[in-house]
Every structure is written in C-alpha cells, then in structure tokens.
Design brief:
This protein is of the alpha/beta class. It contains 14 helices and 28 strands. α2 packs across α3.
Length: 497
C-alpha cells in the first residue's frame, strides 16, 4: 500500500476516534474501517477494474474512494450534477465496468444490479477496455469552454503529493476540523479537503449539500448555509467565489458567522480583490489559491502569514511555475494525459495568463484564448471584468465581449428582477475598473433560459461561444447602440490618449 494511503487508512484504525461525521451521524474509526474493507471485498468479488460512482457527499463516498486507492483500481468519480448524456459519455470513454449510484439510478449501459439500502452496484462485461495512460489511479472529468467533459488521467503519486504538501502547509495553523461544502467529486474538495485533512489527522464533516442550503449548482439558502456552519464550527472550508460572496452578504444582513474559522480557501474562478479585502477586513481568514485538474488540483496558495490579496499566493513546494510569453506553465505536477490523447508534456501549458510580482506572488490575468482587443488597441481579459461584476450581489453570472469595439458589452444574469438595482451594480463595478475595461452596454438574460440554453458548463463556468450564439441579436443591438453614440458619452468612457 502507498505510504500516504496507508496513513489516511490509519486514521480509521483506532476505534475510539470519530474522524468523519455525515448526515447519518458520527462514523467511529472502526466503523469506517469496516466500510472500507467491505468495499475492498466487494470490488474483488466483482472483479472490478474501473469503478465510477455518483453519490451525494457522505462517509460512504469517502469509503469507496479510499478502497479504490488501496486496491489499485481506477477511480472515476462522477459529479451528481452531470446529465444522463454526460454520465454515459464518462462510462463509455473511461471503459467503466462497475457503477455505483443511488437506487434506480443505473445508466443504460448497465443491467445487472446488486442493491443495498443506500446504493446499487451494477456491473457489465467489457471485452476490450479503452486504453488509459499507464499509472492512472483516478480519472476526473473537467468541463471545458465547449461543455464537453474531458477525462484527465492522474497518477496516485501526483494526487497524494499535492495533498501532502497542502497538509504540511496547514500543519502550523492547528486545523482540526474541516467542513466539506463543495461536492466531493470535484478534485479540489477531494484532494485539498478530504486527503489533506485525513493526512493532517483532522475531523471531516461531510453533510448532504441540500442539508446546508445548497440546491443544484446555483441555488443557495444563505441563512441555512450559515446556520450549518455554526452547527459544524469548522476550522477550515473551501469556497468558490459565489459562496464567499454569500458569507459577506450574510454579514451585511447582520447574520453572525462562526468564530471557529482558521483558514478559508477560495478558488475555482477569479476573485475580485476588493472582495478579499472586505472579507479579511471583517476578520475572515480568507485566502485565494489557484489550481487545475490537469495539475492535480492546487498549485499555488496564499497562507495566513504569507498572503497578498489579488494574488493566488506562491507556488506549492512540489511544483515549479514559469511564465512563458505571458502564459503560466507548471512543472512537477502534471497529469499523465487526457483520456484518449497523447501523454502530457513534463511542463504543462495552462492556457492561463499570469505574472509574478517582485516577491514571488502569482497573479492570474485571465485565459489566453478569451483575451480581446478593443478598437482603441487595449487588451482586455474578460474574466477580470466579470469578476468585478459578479462581486456585486445583484449579478449571478456575467459574460463580457468587446473585440474591435470602442467599449465593452456584457450579458448579465441577475439575482433580482429589479433592473434599476442591476444597473447600479454595473455602475459600481465600473468604478473599480479603468475606463477601457468598463461595461458600456449590457443586456439582461433570463436565469432559466441561460441555464437551459447551454450557456454554462456542467461545473457552472460560462461557455462564451454559446453565449455569443444564443444572445447574438441582443449583443448586435448593443454593439449598434455603442457605435452610434459619441465615445465620450459611453458610460463615462473617454478615448485613450
């Protein structure tokens, strides 16, 4: 057994400890150990080779994951928000021969069922397995800008080295309790939340996301979300920017937050620097990080005594990050390769633009492919503008365009039907931006239509090509209004000198 896997498994060998709590209650160490051993025997009896599972956050989820790591079988975690078509794509492309899901959730490819009270296990015979990269321990599926899920083949050493380095960074912060508020199927929570905290000997709390106020991928009951954290009293949590905004919104509404926080990591998308300053000014130990599935999750992170708002921190010890022609390249923690693709190079080009400051802090400047040039010759990274727009509580999602235009256009998905409030939010965001980056014209998208028309990936990221297609007429009208107005009168924008 890999020494780090053995160390995580050892957390359950003392029957007097209670390392995990989920929606069913406390899982003592000996119960968790028996559950892992049950799945080890089950996989052996079924002759499983590649196992996919789609279950809500729970101790059972973690037991399955660890049993796969221990046994050397390939683990294929499936997000519970994947559609049936996406699930079938995962199964076929990864050559999954064993499926674990909720009762009655069998995908079309599986027929034989071995049910229990909480999940069903189905198997199928595959005579010729699709090839995977040698050494693959886990295949995680990540949605690109086209919405097509891509399988990322990761080696066990790569995954666990990332977890170990994070644990070593956490060691001085006395973190003994972690609350999982992201799906365990997301590599960020899986590696930085579960593995790093098991290595640290911390207690894991893995409630159902619905029990803490989260429904689907974009609906959040803020009072319930905060109440769940008061009940859990976590030392650490991992947030995406919208969840950080929810906590700040709670504070603005006079809802107190737990005093137990020692480390709040935020990542998954660009965070507006003023949000971080607001959070830290309110006494929240919030620190931004940066990572990607292709590099085993986190590659850079701010820490309590080593932090710079606006940056994503300094590189972790096991990676080397270089900037080549403005693009971030990562060496030392690259994937084995995409499923069905060639082996990955030793140095992985991330596609993200960035730079280091004089003290070695890494700053993310946006995606290379998304950068556009205005008619005044100014380069604009839309993620930067969008982060400022979405830092306003009235705006849930924003997509910004401006290629060859004298000002920028935005499609915004509001959280409120109050058009005046949305307009004021855009105005406030513009005040934080230089003139060439401000939004000059905008149109409001219906939230339901935006989702159902495919403008978001399965992980909630904007598909710019799809937004441009679906809202082509509205964007064209906005561009025409922009072109017919005097530049000096467009939302306060003046031509650059």
């Amino acid at each position: 057994m890999n020494p780090l896997v053995e160390q995580m498994f050892a957390a359950f060998c003392d029957g007097n400890t209670s390392p995990i709590t989920d929606s069913t209650g406390i899982w003592p160490g000996d119960l968790m150990r028996r559950k892992i051993e049950y799945w080890l025997a089950r996989f052996e009896g079924l002759a499983s080779r590649r196992v996919a599972w789609q279950l809500p956050n729970s101790a059972e989820w973690i037991a399955i994951d660890l049993a796969l790591l221990i046994s050397g079988r390939i683990a294929v975690p499936v997000p519970d928000f994947f559609t049936a078509d996406q699930v079938n794509h995962v199964i076929e492309s990864a050559g999954v021969d064993t499926w674990i899901g909720g009762p009655g959730s069998n995908p079309a490819a599986f027929s034989e069922t071995h049910s229990s009270d909480t999940q069903s296990v189905t198997t199928r015979t595959i005579l010729s397995l699709p090839p995977v990269h040698s050494g693959t321990a886990k295949i995680t599926f990540t949605s690109g800008s086209t919405g097509a899920a891509r399988g990322v083949c990761l080696g066990l050493d790569q995954i666990l080295r990332t977890a170990q380095v994070l644990q070593q960074r956490f060691a001085d912060d006395d973190i003994r309790s972690h609350l999982c508020v992201l799906p365990l199927s997301l590599l960020l929570e899986n590696v930085a939340g579960v593995y790093a905290n098991l290595l640290n000997g911390s207690r894991l709390q893995v409630p159902l996301l619905s029990d803490i106020g989260m429904t689907g991928s974009s609906t959040l009951d803020i009072p319930r979300f905060v109440a769940a954290q008061h009940e859990a009293q976590p030392h650490s949590i991992i947030l995406v920017p919208q969840l950080l905004l929810a906590l700040l919104g709670a504070l603005q509404q006079g809802i107190a937050l737990p005093a137990s926080y020692r480390f709040i990591a935020v990542g998954g998308a660009r965070v507006a620097p003023h949000l971080l300053r607001l959070a830290q000014g309110a006494g929240l130990p919030v620190h931004e990080g940066y990572g990607l599935s292709e590099c085993g999750s986190v590659v850079a992170l701010n820490m309590p005594n080593n932090s710079r708002p606006g940056s994503v921190g300094k590189p972790l010890d096991h990676v080397d990050i270089s900037i080549r022609d403005g693009e971030i390249h990562v060496t030392g923690s690259g994937m084995l390769g995409y499923l069905g693709g060639p082996a990955a190079p030793a140095t992985f080009p991330t596609g993200d633009l960035g730079h280091f400051d004089e003290e070695g802090y890494l700053f993310i400047d946006g995606r290379r492919k998304n950068c556009f040039i205005t008619s005044y010759g100014r380069n604009v990274n839309p993620e930067w503008v969008e982060s400022e727009l979405m830092a306003q509580g009235e705006i849930a999602v924003a997509a910004v365009f401006g290629e060859a235009l004298p000002g920028n256009l935005a499609v915004v998905v509001p959280r409120t039907p109050d058009v005046g409030a949305v307009a004021k939010a855009i105005q406030l965001a513009n005040l934080r931006l230089p003139d060439y980056a401000r939004v000059a014209q905008w149109c409001i998208a219906d939230p339901a239509e935006f989702r159902t028309s495919g403008c978001l990936t399965s992980t909630g990221k904007v598909r710019r090509d799809k937004v441009a297609d679906v809202y082509a007429r509205a964007l064209e009208s906005a561009a025409q209004r922009l072109m017919t107005e005097a530049p000096i009168a467009i939302a306060g924008i003046t031509p650059p000198k």
